[in-house]
Specification:
Blueprint (H helix, E strand, L loop, with lengths): L6 E3 L5 E3 L3 E2 L10 H13 L4 E3 L8 H10 L7 E6 L6 H15 L6 E4 L7 H13 L6 E4 L3 H8 L10 E4 L11 H7 L4 E4 L11 H10 L3 H10 L4 E3 L6 H9 L7 H10 L13
Parallel strand pairs: 3-4, 4-5, 5-6, 6-7, 7-8, 8-9, 9-10
Antiparallel strand pairs: 1-2
Helix pairs in contact: 1-2, 1-9, 3-4, 7-8
Length: 281
């Protein structure tokens, strides 16, 4: 295993590992909490120091798990959380952030995202984000589940050009963003965070991926993650509650796919030939 993961850099110069840790579905069962904490700590120890969570996940439970996992090592971690659209008024965004900070046991979140577009006017949400940034409670802000049209509209608003990232569904079986969203974000130096990079485990059962992975002597999960990691400007955030699986995911960062192997993946999972509606889970 190499010592360092490849990185993705925000416009303000902050670099983060291109492979991080997701927490969706963590915090849902108290019996699994200790294992989830160990898995996150194992990830931190092998360099996957970006942790993505949200107030929505287990109604704050995932943030509490994350807070326990990073206790005493906050400075090692780049922390991402999200505000629900229903809370994303100007005052609601600030209150949601303060509640997240309390659950996380920290005084700042490195990247705070609007979870998806909602009913509250974006200018109020942006104003709240800017206030939180000025007070030091967040390092930067961004969005999640925004398509190209929504991003263009957002960045045209006052201070909207300060949007630092967009987190969307992206994996081998969901490649629609490659047609217009990913190129637009790359052109605008806006990192893309790929959630559900293994399609919630469904990719691990895909016969075509399994056949190619077996021929290459790789676990299917590693091959699927390596596909994302070969792309510039993309951060993949697989979730696992097993330290062993976390280590397997980490090893994907040391795989170099050849042009021929990437072409085979394109045959199994064809890239988009036209604009597609943004998919969400």
């Amino acid at each position: 295993m190499s010592n360092a993961l490849s990185s993705v850099t925000f416009r303000d110069g902050q670099s983060v590992p291109a492979l991080g840790l997701g927490t969706w579905h963590m915090g849902e069962r108290s019996s699994e909490k200790s294992g989830e904490i160990r898995a996150l700590q194992a990830g931190i120890e092998c360099g996957m120091t970006l942790i993505d969570t949200a107030e929505m996940y287990a109604n704050g439970g995932a943030e509490e798990v994350t807070g326990e996992a990073i206790r005493g090592r906050r400075d090692e971690v780049f922390l991402v959380s999200k505000v629900l659209p229903s809370n994303a008024s100007r005052h609601g965004t600030i209150a949601a952030c303060e509640a997240s900070l309390k659950r996380l046991g920290t005084d700042h979140i490195d990247l705070f995202l609007l979870h998806w577009p909602g009913r509250h006017p974006l200018d109020g949400t942006i104003q709240a984000f800017e206030e939180l940034h000025s007070s030091g409670k967040i390092g930067r802000w961004g969005v999640s589940n925004f398509d190209t049209v929504a991003l263009r509209q957002l960045t045209a608003l006052p201070h909207g050009d300060k949007c630092s990232a967009n987190q969307v569904l992206y994996n081998l079986s969901t490649r629609g963003i490659e047609f217009d969203l990913l190129p637009w974000m790359t052109d605008n130096a806006m990192p893309l965070m790929a959630y559900s990079p293994l399609d919630e485990g469904r990719l691990l059962r895909h016969p075509g991926l399994g056949k190619l992975a077996k021929r290459l002597g790789l676990p299917p999960a590693q091959l699927a993650l390596a596909f994302l990691l070969h792309r510039d400007n993309v951060v993949a955030i697989p979730k696992s509650s097993s330290p062993e699986r976390v280590a397997e995911n980490r090893a994907a960062a040391d795989i170099s796919l050849t042009a021929e192997q990437l072409a085979e993946l394109d045959q199994i999972f064809p890239p988009p030939s036209a604009r597609e509606p943004l998919q969400m889970i």
